[in-house]
Amino acid sequence: NRATSYVATAMIGVRKLRNLPAQAN
């Protein structure tokens, strides 16, 4: 389903955004 892929992409995107500040600091 596209909905499932969209949710999975959103989850990965949120994880990346949360990990970027941690790595920058």
Automatic annotation (TrEMBL):
Protein name: DUF4060 family protein
Protein source organism: Salmonella enterica subsp. enterica serovar Newport str. CFSAN000835
